[in-house]
Amino acid sequence: MSMLVMTLPDRTFWKDTVQEVILPTLGGQMGVLKNHVRMLTGLDTGLIYVRRNSSSDWFTLVVTGGFALINDNTVTILVNEAELVSEINLEEAEGLYLSSKHNLNTNRDIRKKFELISQFKKARARYEARKALKTLI
After folding, report:
1. What is the CATH topology of the domain spanning 2-85?
2. CA quadruple 49, 43, 81, 71: dihedral positive or negative?
3. What b-and-e string marks burial along 6-24, b requiring 16 or more CB atoms within 10 Å of the CB?
4. Where is each ATP synthase F1 complex delta/epsilon subunit N-terminal domain found (predicted)?
């Protein structure tokens, strides 16, 4: 049993007791269970999977980079943006994904590429996660 606290710049987005959390770290996915070793890790744009104590169901959130601190059975996540996948509109997510992919593939300005890569990663994570959720429903 661990406490998960996810904070955005302007508010606490999520606070709950959880059994397990899977984080999109810069080095790949990392699972966190009770009594996990203390650590601070960078988070990539991607999906956080959360399994609450009260159920065996998983909740999926899209985040745009940040940090996670794991200490004394508390996972503290600091991110700029977070969104529950179940609240994402599939058609809108698909449109943003396709337009960001097109923009990334057609832009030749190297200075703009980094911004476009970030936009593409977020759009891809939102679209693929929502599309996967639709197939489960």
Report:
1. ATP Synthase; domain 1 (2.60.15)
2. positive
3. bbbeeeebbeeebbbbbbb
4. 7-82
